[in-house]
Each structure stands twice: as C-alpha cells, then as structure tokens.
Specification:
Elements lengths: L6 E5 L2 E4 H32 L4 H26 L4 H18 L1 H16 L7 E4 L2 E8 L3 E5 L5 E5 L1 H5 L2 E3 L6 E9 L5 H14 L10 E7 L4 E9 L5 H19 L16
Antiparallel strand pairs: 1-2, 3-4, 3-7, 4-5, 5-6, 8-10, 9-10
C-alpha cells in the first residue's frame, strides 16, 4: 500500500503517485473504448439511417472521436487527482507553439469540412485542379484522393480546393480534349489540318454533333504548334481517346510524309 501512495514525480506542487497513474490508465482506456464504440455506431448505424454522405459521416465521426478523447483525457486526469489547471498553465506556451506548427493541418481540416458540407465536389466527380485531372475517389478531413485517367492516384490537400480554381466536369455533359501537334515551318498547314480533322472524325468516341477543330497555338523557332480540339461524353475515356488519336497522328504523318521538327544542337569541338 505504501508503494501505491509513493510519490513518483510532481506537477507543480502536486505529487503524482503510482495509484494515480493506475487510475488514470484505467479511466483513459475506458474512454478509448467508448470513443471507438461511438464512432462505429455513428458510421454503421446512425449516419446510414439518415442517408448522410460517406465523406461527411467519416469526418463527423472522427471529430466526435477526438472530442471524446480530449474530454476523456481531462476526466482521467481529474479522476487520478491531478489538477488539470496546472497542466493548462504550464503547457500554454507549448500549445501556442504547436498551434503555429499545425496551421496547415487546421487549414486543410477546415477546407475539408467546407468541401464535405457545401459539396462543390463529391466522390465520383471528374474534376480538374492545379493542372491535374481525374475522378474523386475519397474525401477525408485533410486531403482528397483523385485517380487520373492513367490510373495514377493523386493526394491533393483540401486547401487547394478553396484557394485554387476547380473545374468540375461532372456538371457538364461533354468534355473537350486538346491535342497539341508541332510541325515544321515548311509543312503545308492545310494538308496537316485535313489529316487531323479526318483522324478525329474516324474515332468512334469523338462526338459528331460537336465538330472537331484545328487552331494555331504558337509559332516558335522550332516549328508551328497546332491544336486539335475534340469533344467526348465519357470522361473516363479522356486519356484513352487522346492516346488513340496521337497514335493515329504518328501513323498518318509518316504515311503522308509530314515531318516533325527536330531541334538542332550546336556541337563545339574543343581541341587542345
């Protein structure tokens, strides 16, 4: 019994005994169990019953879980006879420092809540953000996962969706694809244009009621950059259609004798 009452260390002027630590551990273990059970009940029973979006459900359940743990920690400390006010006083400066370090996390968390409740995007949407395009597979409290048409998974911080311009292509019935092609200065522009339009028209996934078009994009020292514009309805086929047309361009340019420009490199011979 003397061992249980023996002071192990002090917090301020208050001694912490072995018995206090045992009480704290038991109460906090109980709190962890309550938090996990509550989260499971919310996700498995409560939220499905009210048809709440899966992303929102996970975020709310996680917030409730953290609140229970924080409150439970304070209860456990109090049950162990530890004066919580002493911890707050001693840890105030530390918490301020941690707060500055967690600014980005807090920003992403708040952005995640805005996304989940305002729902500018949702799971299954085909979007474009920060130059990346793909299908939203999941939205968490910190980040959003996007699967590109090439099958690459991209993790984007939620703050991007608040700070950057987001194009949600799921709200439109069709998607435009631009395919840049660089040709030499001495190539016949009209001939190249006819070839590109013909190749676009022969692709089954390209919309026929939205005619493909070809435009000048840029003229530089290397050559002429042209762009072929086509429309499709199946957004998941974006990368596939682009790849198919590019492959046919290579085939037809070779057949028609249309050459791509080759960058000339100057080689200097240095002799001793």
């Amino acid at each position: 019994m003397d061992l249980l009452q023996k002071t192990l260390f002090k917090i301020g002027d208050q001694g912490v005994t072995f018995l206090s630590l045992i009480v704290f551990a038991l109460v906090f273990i109980l709190v962890i169990i309550v938090a996990r059970v509550t989260r499971r009940i919310l996700i498995k029973r409560v939220f499905p019953k009210h048809e709440i979006n899966a992303g929102i459900a996970r975020s709310i359940a996680r917030i409730v879980n953290y609140l229970i743990l924080v409150i439970g920690l304070l209860v456990a400390l109090n049950s162990a006879g530890i004066n919580v006010s002493l911890l707050f006083a001693g840890g105030a400066a530390i918490m301020v420092g941690i707060g500055f370090g967690l600014q980005n996390i807090a920003n992403n968390f708040i952005s995640g809540l805005i996304i989940l409740f305002e729902r500018p995007i949702k799971e299954g949407d085909f979007i474009e953000v920060a130059g990346k395009m793909g299908t939203v597979t999941s939205i968490s409290w910190r980040s959003t996962r996007i699967k590109t048409p090439a099958g690459i998974m991209i993790i984007v911080p939620n703050s991007f969706f608040i700070e950057k311009e987001v194009v949600n292509r799921s709200y439109v019935e069709k998607t435009q694809i631009d395919i840049p092609v660089t040709i030499s200065h001495n190539e016949d522009f009209d001939k190249v244009k006819d070839v590109l339009l013909r190749l676009a028209a022969e692709n089954e996934l390209v919309l026929k009621d939205c005619p493909p078009s070809v435009s000048f994009s840029e003229i530089n020292e290397l050559g002429i950059i042209m762009k072929l514009w086509v429309w499709i309805t199946d957004q998941d086929k974006y990368a596939s259609v682009r790849s198919q047309i590019n492959y046919r361009i290579l085939q037809e340019f070779k057949k028609e004798g249309i050459k791509f420009p080759v960058q000339q490199r100057e080689v200097t011979n240095i002799s001793s």
